[in-house]
Write a structure and sequence with these properties.
Layout: E1 2-10, E2 25-29, H1 50-59, H2 62-83, E3 87-94, H3 100-115, E4 120-126
Parallel strand pairs: 1-3, 1-4, 2-3
InterPro entries: RapZ-like, RapZ_C
Pfam families: PapZ_C
Domain RapZ C-terminal: 3-128
Length: 131
Amino acid sequence: MIAVEVRSFSFLKGYPVETSVHGGGFVFDCRCIKNPGQVDHLKPLTGRDGPVADYLLTETDMPAFLLEIQAILKRSITSYLKSGYDSLSVSFGCTGGQHRSLYAAEQTEKWLLQEFKDKVTVVKNHREFPE
């Protein structure tokens, strides 16, 4: 079993602090994705909201970006399970930690739980927009 911490954060406030015993993990920069925060009616929303999700799915490269990340995570988690590692951090950053990174973290959590079912536990942490 691997404990995966999935985080979103704002690069403006710095990288998240690594808390696992072994350290390590991934930090993905979502600033390469078109920013829904620059669209007036989406600005007050977050990556948890339907209109932001719709925008990211239809107006940006987010779907392809997430598929590439999933391939990396699948390779790593499969290897970690064989090696006996017990933790991994996966962080997503963007300018404000509100739209792109939060959405990516939410989708990654869902994918991990579906792809690895009883092989991972997921702890989610949205540093700028906690639940």
